[in-house]
Amino acid sequence: MKILNVKQIRELDAATIQNEPISSLNLMERASQAFVKWYEGRFDTTKSISVFCGKGNNGGDGLAISRILSGKGYHVRVFVIEYTKDASEDFQQNLVKIENLIQVKSVYEINAMPEFVDDHVIIDALLGSGLSRPAEGLLAEVIKKINDAPGPIISVDIASGLYVDKSNEKADTIIEPDHTVTFQLPKLAFMMPQNAAFTGDWHVVDIGLNEKYIADASTPYHFTDQSSGEALVKFREKFSHKGTFGHALIMAGSYGKIGAAVLSSRACAHSGAGLLTVHVPECGYEILQISLPEAMISVDQNRNYIASVPELDSFSAIGIGPGIGQEALTVRVLDELLSKIKVPLIIDADALNILSKHPDLLEKLPAKTIVSPHPKEFQRLAGESANEYDRLELARNFAQKHNVIICLKGAYTAVILSDGDVHFNSTGNAGMATGGSGDVLTGILTSLLAQKYTPENAAIFGVFQHGLAGDKAAKKKTKTAMIASDIIDNLGW
Ligand SMILES: NC(=O)C1=CN([C@@H]2O[C@H](COP(=O)(O)OP(=O)(O)OC[C@H]3O[C@@H](n4cnc5c(N)ncnc54)[C@H](OP(=O)(O)O)[C@@H]3O)[C@@H](O)[C@H]2O)[C@@H](O)CC1
Ligand SMILES: [K+]
């Protein structure tokens, strides 16, 4: 699924109006009906509704939604916030359409706002994708008052005050909805953890916007939803043998962190690799043999941490990093590995921290190496950024400059390809923010690379399946009780 910027959303709107053809007023009606259909599935008529409208097209949606809901037997109160004299054409037309049906109250000052009761639903249709500056004055006061209300808030298209495709300032006044019901495509703003409070649960409703425009639109931003995630799978042919699925090598663990090696290895084995060898320091030998008899063990001559690179000839992909520490000899191992490797590589955890401290090694990364930092690791690697939009730009530049693929881990893990394209992942949950969950991802990615998924597809599909397994684990065990091993136990596609 594509994520478009504001300018493209406007063009998409226009392309739909021109090519379908449909009047802009009827398109607004269709959008409002789609919103109401979503609403009916969630709330029955016992709950009263207050709809707050601005005077642009988002407010026009608010008026149309009020009219349609009222026609379906909901008790609806409608407020228009009079922060300006100007009103959009479609707003005005919808005002006429509602006039004899529901009383519309004009709010010229904050004291004219209604009081709210507990189970009262608020629909926020103040400002939409046309936001051009922070909300101020009466609008800001109204937004604060709505945020203080006890009942659920549902934003039409996007929370009022939130920019679609650029960062807000910390001081901006923005609606904090429980739900956002957005039209046709997800918005870039929803992907940013900094906007969590201004997004709530978001839902995309189809309003039949021009498919050709969407297909032709060029954007670096994509959303890996269920269908685009599943589509990347490589099915296992009937006449395949273990050689078909490659031989993965995982280099992981040090004294006290052999668990990281176990987790990444188990995840690798459970993600379909034909053969798996794990290279660990001597202290990890028995632990690995016992916890994963399916793996072959390559024992480092050093007791407590990895100090040598094994013979690499037989491997089809290599993952390095989980729990390896940053001993000087281990740094040399990474250096030597980068010089020798001829197969796809994934670098994570301590190996990333080594890269941060030895930036000269960055130059040695083979093309399309996957790196999978969490935000702190990424900051150590690439530097600070003022906000998450800037961080994403930094990551896109980094990926292009070093010709690598970055899995920037977080609520919507961003897979950033070496051409700068970004694929936000849809799966996963907060229960996965727990020790070892990154090691599991390393194992999955190594496994997919060994099975000859392209590095791009391995990253997008691996992150997707990792999140999906995490969602299954959370369902069975709850987000609180689940641990990284539960993610492994729920792998499988
Ligand atoms: N895209 C689609 O396909 C469809 C879109 N639809 C709906 O249209 C919505 C977009 O509508 P929209 O463009 O009229 O924008 P919206 O945000 O309602 O108002 C902009 C007005 O507000 C003003 N303004 C801006 N910031 C302000 C501020 N801080 N404080 C005060 N004023 C401010 C701004 O002024 P200006 O920037 O011109 O000075 C302008 O006058 C979209 O979110 C969706 O709900 C559906 O109906 C159908 C399909
Ligand atoms: K809104």
Characterization of the model:
The protein is α/β, with parallel strands linked by helices and 493 residues long. It folds into two domains: 6-217, Rossmann fold (3-Layer(aba) Sandwich), CATH 3.40.50; 230-489, 3-Layer(aba) Sandwich (UDP-N-acetylmuramoyl-L-alanine:D-glutamate ligase). The protein has helices at 6-19, 24-40, 57-71, 89-98, 137-147, 211-216, 226-230, 258-269, 285-291, 328-340, 349-357, 375-382, 388-402, 437-450, 455-477, 484-489, and strands at 49-53, 76-81, 104-107, 121-125, 153-156, 179-183, 201-205, 221-224, 247-251, 275-280, 296-299, 317-320, 345-347, 369-371, 404-408, 414-416, 422-425. α2 (24-40) crosses α3 and α14 (437-450) packs across α15. It starts with 5 loop residues before the first helix and ends with a helix. The mean pLDDT is 97. Ligand NPW binds next to α1, α2 and α3.
Topology record:
Layout (H helix, E strand, L loop, with lengths): L5 H14 L4 H17 L8 E5 L3 H15 L4 E6 L7 H10 L5 E4 L13 E5 L11 H11 L5 E4 L22 E5 L17 E5 L5 H6 L4 E4 L1 H5 L16 E5 L6 H12 L5 E6 L4 H7 L4 E4 L17 E4 L7 H13 L4 E3 L1 H9 L11 E3 L3 H8 L5 H15 L1 E5 L5 E3 L5 E4 L11 H14 L4 H23 L6 H6 L4
Parallel strand pairs: 1-2, 1-4, 2-3, 4-5, 5-6, 6-7, 8-17, 9-10, 9-12, 10-11, 12-13, 13-14, 14-15
Antiparallel strand pairs: 15-16, 16-17
Helix pairs in contact: 2-3, 3-4, 8-14, 11-12, 14-15
The site of ligand NPW has 29 residues, from helix 1, helix 2 and helix 3.
